[in-house]
Amino acid sequence: MCASRRNFLKNGAAGLAGVLAYPQFGLSQSYPNLATQTSPVSATDEKFWQQVRAQFPLNKNSIYLNNGTMGPSPYPVIDAVHKGMMEGDVNGAYGGWENTQAALAKFVGANENEIALTRNVTDGINIVCWGLPFKRGDEVIMSTHEHVGNAFPWLTRQRIDGIVVKAVNPSQTAEQTLANVKAAYTKKTKAIALPHIPCTQGQIFPVKEICEWAKSMGLYAFIDGAHGPGMMPLDLHDMGCDAYASCSHKWMLGPKGTGFLYVKKEFQNTLQAKFVGGGSDNAKWNMASQPIQTGDYADSAHRYYGGSQSLGLYKGVEAAIQFIETIGLQSIYERIAYLGKYTQDQLLSCGNKIELLTPTEDRSRIAINGFRIKGVDFNAFYKTCAENKIRIRVVQENGLNSLRVSTHIYNNTQEVDAFIALVKKAIG
Ligand SMILES: Cc1ncc(COP(=O)(O)O)c(C=O)c1O
Known about the structure:
Elements: H1 3-15, E1 16-19, E2 30-32, H2 46-53, E3 63-64, H3 75-91, H4 98-108, E4 115-118, H5 121-131, E5 139-143, H6 148-161, E6 164-168, H7 174-183, E7 189-195, H8 207-216, E8 220-224, H9 236-239, E9 243-247, E10 259-263, E11 285-286, E12 293-294, H10 311-327, H11 329-348, E13 354-356, E14 368-373, H12 378-387, E15 390-391, E16 393-395, E17 402-406, H13 413-427
Parallel strand pairs: 3-15, 5-6, 5-7, 7-8, 8-9
Antiparallel strand pairs: 1-2, 4-10, 9-10, 11-12, 13-14, 14-17, 16-17
Helix pairs in contact: 3-10, 4-10, 5-6, 11-13
The structure holds pyridoxal-5'-phosphate.
Pyridoxal-5'-phosphate binds near residues 69, 120, 121, 122 and 199.
């Protein structure tokens, strides 16, 4: 009997949600159905979270603690990408990704006409960085914990257009971080371009308060939201930023190479669209008329992107949102916060050789922990983890030379314990 038939019988027709055959990866060929949760799930309901884990093709012989870099997709997302691609390849379907804007908008508390589809966070950051009307000497407040994807566009604009980038230190409390941002203000400040959650040690910046202050000072408020969507419920209107760049391939567990940029409707006439094409216009241009008609921009965030997109990838984004909703975003948020705190507590229990870089304040921490081990080279410890099939990340950005561990819903406390055992061994 073939393996897929055996699996089919084992799971029973009713429990089988799909069959994906990737024998070259040694992956199970079927995935069980995950019922839609009609009430909140406890963060410690291990039986339920094990069912969630079974939705992921993640290798069972290794431990993945690096969601901050890339969120592995569950089967339903991979399945949707596959089917979306088949739509194009079998039926010649074109378009269809427009629906994704509406789904993303609802997911992050925005309107459909405020969402631009991008490939990644970097695309969104560049659209904002290059579209803002700066003049030489204008200052932008950033942080000392930027990812290259936020740092380098602004540093390049500094090099080309003479803006001045300033970097403030995040602090252990949200209150102090806000104070540090405010302290960097001068009469020349024109914008803030800060992370919601930096990639380095994962602290949650007090973005609502920062944006409120920035707007009260007449500044443009841009947030690098690489980490946020899929991690916690979001309401971008309530956050008050002018623009927020994110992706679906981290905490939303969506297909790789899918991102989105939120641009507040009222801000769209301030943020100049520069990378334009089919869809970013209002269909009123005509090169053959005399004089040439230039047309204008689409009356939505579509003005910031043009051209063909991948139906398969965006079907995958919709499936990722659907997957999150099957479990419940609030329950996911609580599970993520529980595992993040568990990891942090375990690190702290290792004693004073651990230098924790992430705040312990509840409102400032969630799923990513940054740390150093005194007397242990960060690269050497990363290698030890890799040799033991545990994937974490080194943080060389901004000279931090530290380590980062991030946990999502497919992880559990035993996996964290296995990682902590290596930390304890390294301490000696
Ligand atoms: C804070 C932050 N900003 C920007 C990026 C760049 O994201 P992307 O690779 O999707 O462009 C990352 C990626 O890890 C990040 O962590």
